[in-house]
Amino acid sequence: FTYDLLLKNSLYIVGEHQYHEKHCLVALPGVKLEDVTEIQSHAYVIDQCRGFLSKLPDTVAIGQAPDTASAAGRIKELNLTTSAAICGARAAEIHSLSVLVDSIEDDANTLTRYVLLSRTPLDPERHLEPRTAVAVWLKNVTGMFHRTAACFALRDIK
Question: For residues 29 and 25, what is the distance between their CA atoms, to the nearest angstrom?
Fold first, then answer.
C-alpha cells in the first residue's frame, strides 16, 4: 500500500490496527537453511531483519517482493527449492511452507500499521480520538516540507 494509491483512487483511511507479527524465514518442506540461495520479502521487512540477514553467507541473494505474502506464495507456486521468504507464520501456513527460523526481526517491539480503507469518509465517534492523514505532492526543493509542515504548526494543528 502506498499513499499515492489513496489519491489516485479517492480512498479514505477510516480505521487502523497496529500489530506485532514475528518475522519467519520460510521455505518449501524439506528445504534446509543451507540450501537457500535467495530470500525475498517486502523492503521494510528486509530492513527489519538486517541483523539476521547479515549473518548469512554472501552467496545468498536478497530480493524485494511487493509484500510478504506474495513472496511466500511465489515459492509455493513456482516450487522454488532454493528460495526462502520472510513472512509471518500465518502466510507460511496458508502456502504450506515450513518455518526454517522463527523471530528473525531485529526489534521484537516493531509494529506494523494496517489501515482500513473506504470509498466514503466516516465521521468518527467523539470518544475515539480520531487521527488525520494528509497526503501532499511537493516540489523537490530544499525546505519545501518544512514550509508545508510550518503551515500546520503556525495554526496549532496537531
Answer: 12
What does pTM read for this prediction? Answer: 0.73
Residues 6+ apart with CB under 8 A from 65: 40, 41, 42, 71, 74, 85
Where do we find the cell 518455518?
99
Mean pLDDT of all residues in 42-63? 96
pLDDT digits (tens, 9 = 90+) for 60-86: 999 999 999 999 999 999 999 999 999
CA terminus-to-terminus distance, the chain? 25
- Angle value at C-alpha 46, between 115 and 38, nearest 5 degrees: 130
CB atoms within 10 A of CB 52: 17
In this structure, the strands spanning 83-87 and 61-64 are unpaired
pLDDT-derived band at 16, boundaries 50, 70, 90? confident
Give me Rg for the CA atoms of the chain.
20
CA distance 113 to 92: 20
Q: Which residue has the cell 503551515?
A: 151
Rounded CA separation 88/61 (Å): 20
Whether the predicted pLDDT of 2 surpasses 70: no
